[in-house]
Amino acid sequence: MSRAQCSRCLRPQTHCLCALIPQLDSRTRVLLLQHPSEVGHALNTARLADLGLLNAELRVGEVFEDLATLLNPPGYQARLLFPGEDAQLIDTGEPSDESLPWLLVVPDGTWRKARKLLHLNPLLAQLPRATLPEGAVSRYRLRKAPGPGALSTLEAIVQALEILEAPTSFAPLLRPFEALIEGQIEAMGADTYQRNHGDKTV
């Protein structure tokens, strides 16, 4: 028998995260394009970002028929948060064109699935790209990062917004993320966690 599920955060009602999810406004608009394989993932951080940001929208799919409309909301300039040779480093307090805030387009999935979204949606691949400064460390202690600086979707969005909209803090978005990780560690048991994910250098 399946456990009752919260219809908002999609977690079991006994582990509902809604009380921890903030309601934050931002000048930057965030468009999350989620690969369908991520929807049932225990750590669905794109959904947490969508629930916690007032100026965000989450779409699920592989091909987005209305992408041209989604990428051109009035009053915004679109940027794809994805690495690339010509990607602009997000390192200033404001987008380059100060008259228009950014529409930050964020593909959500494994690196392979995210690249597939770009391949299947050529309009995405044509967007100017933005990338985060190097050196970030993920708080996701339950999965080995594919490389240095690899962040969850939620962590990447928080870092981008804190740069673009400094000094505003978007750290409250990470509270349900942290609680989710702690809950998974607790369910796993301290010994199992330490054996599989603990610091091997000690």
From TrEMBL:
UniProtKB keywords: S-adenosyl-L-methionine, Transferase, tRNA processing
Keyword Transferase: yes
Span of domain DTW: 2-189
Domain of life, source organism: Bacteria
Alphabetized InterPro entries for the sequence: DTW, DTWD2/TAPT
Top EC class of this enzyme: transferase
EC id: 2.5.1.25
GO biological process: tRNA processing
UniProt key word S-adenosyl-L-methionine: yes
Family to which the UniProt record says this protein belongs: Belongs to the TDD superfamily. DTWD2 family.
UniProt protein name: tRNA-uridine aminocarboxypropyltransferase
Species for this entry: Pseudomonas versuta
